[in-house]
Protein backbone atom coordinates (compact mmCIF):
# COMPACT_ATOMS: atom_id res chain seq x y z
CA UNK A 1 0.00 0.00 0.00
CA UNK A 2 1.37 3.41 -0.91
CA UNK A 3 0.94 6.26 1.53
CA UNK A 4 1.11 9.95 0.51
CA UNK A 5 4.00 10.35 2.97
CA UNK A 6 7.76 9.82 2.86
CA UNK A 7 9.06 6.67 4.58
CA UNK A 8 11.69 7.83 7.10
CA UNK A 9 12.37 4.70 9.17
CA UNK A 10 11.68 1.00 8.84
CA UNK A 11 11.75 -1.47 11.72
CA UNK A 12 11.13 -5.24 11.71
CA UNK A 13 7.41 -4.82 12.23
CA UNK A 14 6.79 -1.05 11.99
CA UNK A 15 7.35 1.93 9.69
CA UNK A 16 7.69 5.66 10.31
CA UNK A 17 6.45 8.19 7.74
CA UNK A 18 6.86 11.98 7.65
CA UNK A 19 3.43 13.67 7.50
CA UNK A 20 4.89 17.19 7.62
CA UNK A 21 7.75 19.06 9.33
CA UNK A 22 6.22 18.61 12.77
CA UNK A 23 4.45 15.27 12.63
CA UNK A 24 5.21 11.61 11.90
CA UNK A 25 3.02 8.58 11.35
CA UNK A 26 4.01 5.36 13.13
CA UNK A 27 2.43 2.40 11.35
CA UNK A 28 2.38 -1.00 13.09
CA UNK A 29 2.17 -4.02 10.77
CA UNK A 30 0.72 -7.46 11.47
CA UNK A 31 4.20 -8.91 11.09
CA UNK A 32 5.61 -10.89 14.01
CA UNK A 33 9.22 -11.62 14.76
CA UNK A 34 10.67 -14.51 16.72
CA UNK A 35 14.29 -15.28 17.48
CA UNK A 36 15.13 -11.94 15.78
CA UNK A 37 13.60 -13.10 12.50
CA UNK A 38 10.49 -11.60 10.88
CA UNK A 39 8.21 -14.54 10.11
CA UNK A 40 6.49 -14.84 6.70
CA UNK A 41 3.00 -15.27 8.18
CA UNK A 42 1.19 -12.18 9.49
CA UNK A 43 -0.93 -12.26 12.66
CA UNK A 44 -4.26 -10.58 11.81
CA UNK A 45 -5.03 -7.54 14.03
CA UNK A 46 -1.60 -7.58 15.77
CA UNK A 47 -0.85 -4.06 14.48
CA UNK A 48 -4.24 -2.72 15.54
CA UNK A 49 -4.19 -4.38 18.98
CA UNK A 50 -0.66 -3.20 19.82
CA UNK A 51 -1.45 0.31 18.57
CA UNK A 52 -4.61 0.42 20.72
CA UNK A 53 -2.55 -0.84 23.67
CA UNK A 54 0.10 1.86 23.22
CA UNK A 55 -2.63 4.53 22.98
CA UNK A 56 -4.20 3.23 26.20
CA UNK A 57 -0.82 3.24 27.99
CA UNK A 58 -0.17 6.84 26.94
CA UNK A 59 -3.45 7.73 28.71
CA UNK A 60 -2.54 5.71 31.83
CA UNK A 61 1.00 7.09 32.04
CA UNK A 62 0.14 10.76 31.41
CA UNK A 63 0.01 11.53 35.18
CA UNK A 64 3.45 9.97 35.74
CA UNK A 65 4.86 11.96 32.83
CA UNK A 66 3.33 15.16 34.23
CA UNK A 67 4.88 14.48 37.67
CA UNK A 68 8.26 14.49 35.93
CA UNK A 69 7.61 17.56 33.81
CA UNK A 70 7.45 15.38 30.72
CA UNK A 71 4.90 14.74 27.98
CA UNK A 72 4.21 12.07 25.35
CA UNK A 73 4.22 12.39 21.56
CA UNK A 74 0.80 10.94 20.67
CA UNK A 75 -1.46 13.32 18.73
CA UNK A 76 -4.11 11.06 17.20
CA UNK A 77 -5.01 7.55 16.08
CA UNK A 78 -7.87 5.72 14.36
CA UNK A 79 -10.60 7.57 12.43
CA UNK A 80 -9.10 10.97 13.27
CA UNK A 81 -6.29 10.05 10.86
CA UNK A 82 -8.61 9.72 7.84
CA UNK A 83 -8.71 13.51 7.57
CA UNK A 84 -4.89 13.46 7.32
CA UNK A 85 -5.00 11.23 4.26
CA UNK A 86 -4.29 7.96 6.08
CA UNK A 87 -6.13 5.07 4.35
CA UNK A 88 -8.91 3.47 6.43
CA UNK A 89 -7.15 0.09 6.53
CA UNK A 90 -4.12 1.69 8.21
CA UNK A 91 -5.81 4.18 10.56
CA UNK A 92 -6.40 1.67 13.38
CA UNK A 93 -2.80 0.57 13.41
CA UNK A 94 -1.23 4.02 13.05
CA UNK A 95 -0.33 6.77 15.49
CA UNK A 96 0.11 10.40 14.42
CA UNK A 97 2.89 11.71 16.68
CA UNK A 98 4.87 14.90 17.27
CA UNK A 99 8.24 14.91 15.55
CA UNK A 100 10.88 14.88 18.32
CA UNK A 101 14.62 15.22 18.56
CA UNK A 102 15.11 11.58 19.59
CA UNK A 103 17.69 10.90 22.30
CA UNK A 104 20.36 8.30 21.38
CA UNK A 105 19.55 6.02 24.32
CA UNK A 106 17.31 2.97 24.65
CA UNK A 107 15.83 3.42 28.13
CA UNK A 108 15.40 -0.11 29.47
CA UNK A 109 13.83 -0.85 32.85
CA UNK A 110 14.04 -4.34 34.33
CA UNK A 111 12.06 -5.73 37.23
CA UNK A 112 13.22 -9.28 36.53
CA UNK A 113 16.40 -10.89 35.28
CA UNK A 114 16.08 -12.17 31.72
CA UNK A 115 17.69 -12.48 28.31
CA UNK A 116 20.78 -10.37 27.79
CA UNK A 117 20.50 -9.18 31.40
CA UNK A 118 21.01 -12.72 32.62
CA UNK A 119 24.06 -13.22 30.40
CA UNK A 120 25.68 -10.01 31.64
CA UNK A 121 24.87 -10.89 35.27
CA UNK A 122 26.31 -14.40 34.94
CA UNK A 123 29.56 -12.92 33.63
CA UNK A 124 30.02 -10.16 36.17
CA UNK A 125 27.34 -10.22 38.89
CA UNK A 126 26.03 -6.98 37.43
CA UNK A 127 24.32 -5.51 34.40
CA UNK A 128 27.13 -3.20 33.26
CA UNK A 129 27.35 -0.75 36.21
CA UNK A 130 24.20 -1.96 38.00
CA UNK A 131 25.33 -4.36 40.75
CA UNK A 132 22.86 -7.13 41.63
CA UNK A 133 22.76 -9.55 44.60
CA UNK A 134 24.31 -13.01 44.27
CA UNK A 135 22.21 -16.07 43.56
CA UNK A 136 19.88 -14.69 40.91
CA UNK A 137 18.76 -16.92 38.05
CA UNK A 138 16.87 -16.47 34.74
CA UNK A 139 13.47 -15.10 35.65
CA UNK A 140 14.42 -13.94 39.16
CA UNK A 141 12.56 -10.89 40.42
CA UNK A 142 15.06 -8.13 41.18
CA UNK A 143 15.09 -6.50 44.63
CA UNK A 144 13.92 -3.35 42.89
CA UNK A 145 13.52 -2.29 39.24
CA UNK A 146 16.77 -1.16 37.60
CA UNK A 147 17.64 1.20 34.73
CA UNK A 148 19.86 -0.65 32.24
CA UNK A 149 20.19 1.56 29.15
CA UNK A 150 21.58 0.53 25.81
CA UNK A 151 22.73 2.12 22.61
CA UNK A 152 20.46 2.24 19.59
CA UNK A 153 21.90 -0.39 17.30
CA UNK A 154 21.79 -0.19 13.51
CA UNK A 155 19.01 -2.14 11.82
CA UNK A 156 19.72 -5.85 12.19
CA UNK A 157 22.23 -5.31 15.01
CA UNK A 158 21.62 -5.87 18.72
CA UNK A 159 21.47 -2.95 21.14
CA UNK A 160 24.59 -2.79 23.31
CA UNK A 161 24.14 -2.38 27.09
CA UNK A 162 25.85 0.76 28.38
CA UNK A 163 26.53 2.24 31.80
CA UNK A 164 24.97 5.38 33.27
CA UNK A 165 28.22 7.30 32.64
CA UNK A 166 27.75 6.71 28.92
CA UNK A 167 24.20 8.07 29.12
CA UNK A 168 25.63 11.18 30.82
CA UNK A 169 28.19 11.49 28.01
CA UNK A 170 25.39 11.26 25.46
CA UNK A 171 22.75 13.57 26.94
CA UNK A 172 24.34 15.36 29.93
CA UNK A 173 24.03 14.65 33.64
CA UNK A 174 20.72 16.39 34.31
CA UNK A 175 18.94 14.78 31.35
CA UNK A 176 20.47 11.37 32.20
CA UNK A 177 19.14 11.58 35.75
CA UNK A 178 15.73 12.60 34.41
CA UNK A 179 15.70 9.66 31.97
CA UNK A 180 16.55 7.18 34.73
CA UNK A 181 13.97 8.54 37.16
CA UNK A 182 11.23 8.73 34.55
CA UNK A 183 12.00 5.32 33.02
CA UNK A 184 11.76 3.66 36.44
CA UNK A 185 8.59 5.57 37.39
CA UNK A 186 6.87 4.59 34.12
CA UNK A 187 7.97 0.97 34.53
CA UNK A 188 6.70 0.81 38.13
CA UNK A 189 3.28 2.14 37.08
CA UNK A 190 3.14 -0.25 34.13
CA UNK A 191 4.21 -3.23 36.25
CA UNK A 192 1.56 -2.37 38.86
CA UNK A 193 -1.23 -2.27 36.26
CA UNK A 194 0.08 -5.42 34.56
CA UNK A 195 0.24 -7.30 37.89
CA UNK A 196 -3.45 -6.54 38.50
CA UNK A 197 -4.10 -8.09 35.07
CA UNK A 198 -2.14 -11.28 35.88
CA UNK A 199 0.78 -10.26 33.67
CA UNK A 200 4.41 -9.95 34.77
CA UNK A 201 6.04 -6.95 33.08
CA UNK A 202 9.56 -8.36 33.26
CA UNK A 203 11.21 -5.49 31.41
CA UNK A 204 10.48 -2.80 28.87
CA UNK A 205 12.20 -0.34 26.54
CA UNK A 206 11.17 3.31 26.30
CA UNK A 207 12.40 5.82 23.73
CA UNK A 208 12.42 9.51 24.56
CA UNK A 209 12.96 12.67 22.59
CA UNK A 210 12.78 16.37 23.25
CA UNK A 211 10.54 19.11 21.93
CA UNK A 212 11.30 22.74 22.90
CA UNK A 213 13.51 21.45 25.73
CA UNK A 214 10.79 19.25 27.21
CA UNK A 215 11.35 15.50 27.65
CA UNK A 216 8.79 13.58 25.59
CA UNK A 217 7.97 9.85 25.65
CA UNK A 218 7.98 8.51 22.10
CA UNK A 219 7.77 5.27 20.15
CA UNK A 220 5.36 2.49 21.17
CA UNK A 221 4.83 1.98 24.88
CA UNK A 222 4.58 -1.15 27.04
CA UNK A 223 3.55 -3.47 24.22
CA UNK A 224 4.57 -7.14 24.01
CA UNK A 225 6.93 -6.03 21.19
CA UNK A 226 8.76 -3.48 23.38
CA UNK A 227 8.51 -5.46 26.61
CA UNK A 228 8.65 -8.95 28.06
CA UNK A 229 5.14 -9.99 29.12
CA UNK A 230 4.94 -13.22 31.14
CA UNK A 231 1.77 -14.89 32.43
CA UNK A 232 2.01 -14.37 36.20
CA UNK A 233 0.46 -17.81 36.83
CA UNK A 234 3.41 -19.64 35.25
CA UNK A 235 6.21 -17.45 36.66
CA UNK A 236 8.91 -19.76 38.00
CA UNK A 237 12.52 -18.51 38.24
CA UNK A 238 15.26 -20.85 37.05
CA UNK A 239 14.49 -21.17 33.35
CA UNK A 240 13.33 -19.03 30.40
CA UNK A 241 9.78 -17.89 31.16
CA UNK A 242 6.97 -18.55 28.69
CA UNK A 243 6.16 -15.45 26.66
CA UNK A 244 2.59 -14.21 27.09
CA UNK A 245 2.23 -13.58 23.36
CA UNK A 246 4.89 -15.48 21.44
CA UNK A 247 5.14 -18.85 23.19
CA UNK A 248 2.85 -20.67 20.72
CA UNK A 249 5.03 -19.37 17.87
CA UNK A 250 8.29 -20.24 19.62
CA UNK A 251 7.13 -23.73 20.55
CA UNK A 252 5.87 -24.47 17.02
CA UNK A 253 9.08 -23.18 15.45
CA UNK A 254 11.05 -25.47 17.78
CA UNK A 255 8.99 -28.54 16.90
CA UNK A 256 9.04 -27.63 13.20
CA UNK A 257 12.77 -28.37 13.08
CA UNK A 258 13.53 -24.87 11.70
CA UNK A 259 17.29 -24.30 12.00
CA UNK A 260 16.87 -20.51 12.71
CA UNK A 261 19.23 -19.82 9.81
CA UNK A 262 17.27 -20.78 6.71
CA UNK A 263 14.13 -18.75 5.83
CA UNK A 264 11.52 -19.13 8.56
CA UNK A 265 8.60 -21.45 7.75
CA UNK A 266 4.99 -20.30 7.37
CA UNK A 267 3.01 -20.66 10.61
CA UNK A 268 0.04 -23.05 10.72
CA UNK A 269 -3.37 -21.38 10.87
CA UNK A 270 -3.99 -22.70 14.39
CA UNK A 271 -0.77 -21.10 15.68
CA UNK A 272 -1.67 -17.80 14.01
CA UNK A 273 -5.20 -17.87 15.49
CA UNK A 274 -3.92 -18.74 18.99
CA UNK A 275 -1.31 -15.99 18.78
CA UNK A 276 -3.87 -13.42 17.64
CA UNK A 277 -5.99 -14.45 20.64
CA UNK A 278 -3.02 -13.87 22.98
CA UNK A 279 -2.68 -10.29 21.74
CA UNK A 280 -6.41 -9.69 22.16
CA UNK A 281 -6.32 -11.26 25.64
CA UNK A 282 -3.38 -9.10 26.70
CA UNK A 283 -5.25 -5.99 25.54
CA UNK A 284 -8.50 -6.99 27.27
CA UNK A 285 -6.82 -8.02 30.55
CA UNK A 286 -4.70 -4.85 30.75
CA UNK A 287 -7.28 -2.30 29.63
CA UNK A 288 -10.44 -3.96 30.98
CA UNK A 289 -11.96 -3.17 27.58
CA UNK A 290 -13.45 -5.66 25.11
CA UNK A 291 -11.47 -5.80 21.87
CA UNK A 292 -14.63 -6.38 19.76
C1 LIG B 1 13.16 3.97 16.40
C2 LIG B 1 11.81 4.38 16.04
C3 LIG B 1 11.20 3.54 14.97
C4 LIG B 1 9.84 3.31 15.06
C5 LIG B 1 9.24 2.49 14.11
C6 LIG B 1 10.01 1.92 13.08
C7 LIG B 1 11.37 2.21 13.00
C8 LIG B 1 11.98 3.02 13.95
N1 LIG B 1 11.78 5.80 15.61
C9 LIG B 1 11.17 6.77 16.30
C10 LIG B 1 11.31 7.91 15.59
C11 LIG B 1 10.81 9.26 15.93
N2 LIG B 1 11.47 10.32 15.41
C12 LIG B 1 11.04 11.57 15.70
N3 LIG B 1 9.96 11.81 16.48
C13 LIG B 1 9.25 10.78 17.01
N4 LIG B 1 8.13 11.03 17.76
C14 LIG B 1 9.68 9.44 16.76
C15 LIG B 1 8.96 8.36 17.35
N5 LIG B 1 8.39 7.46 17.82
C16 LIG B 1 12.07 7.61 14.46
N6 LIG B 1 12.33 6.25 14.49
From TrEMBL:
GO terms for cellular component: cytoplasm. It catalyses: 5-amino-1-(5-phospho-D-ribosyl)imidazole-4-carboxylate + L-aspartate + ATP = (2S)-2-[5-amino-1-(5-phospho-beta-D-ribosyl)imidazole-4-carboxamido]succinate + ADP + phosphate + 2 H(+). GO terms for biological process: 'de novo' IMP biosynthetic process. The keyword Ligase applies. Its EC number is 6.3.2.6. Pathway: Purine metabolism; IMP biosynthesis via de novo pathway; 5-amino-1-(5-phospho-D-ribosyl)imidazole-4-carboxamide from 5-amino-1-(5-phospho-D-ribosyl)imidazole-4-carboxylate: step 1/2. The keyword Transmembrane helix does not apply. Keywords: ATP-binding, Ligase, Nucleotide-binding, Purine biosynthesis. InterPro entries: SAICAR_synt/ADE2_N, SAICAR_synth, SAICAR_synthetase_CS. Belongs to the SAICAR synthetase family. HAMAP family: SAICAR_synth (MF_00137). This is Phosphoribosylaminoimidazole-succinocarboxamide synthase. The gene is purC.
Amino acid sequence: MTLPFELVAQGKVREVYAVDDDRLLLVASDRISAYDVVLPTPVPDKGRVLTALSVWWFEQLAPVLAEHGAEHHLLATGDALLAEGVPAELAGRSMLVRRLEMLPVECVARGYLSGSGTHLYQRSGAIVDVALPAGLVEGSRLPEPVFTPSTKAEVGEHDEAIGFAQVVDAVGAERAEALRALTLALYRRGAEIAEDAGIVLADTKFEFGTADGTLVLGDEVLTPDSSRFWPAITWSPGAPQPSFDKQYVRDWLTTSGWDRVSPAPELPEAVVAATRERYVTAYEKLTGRSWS
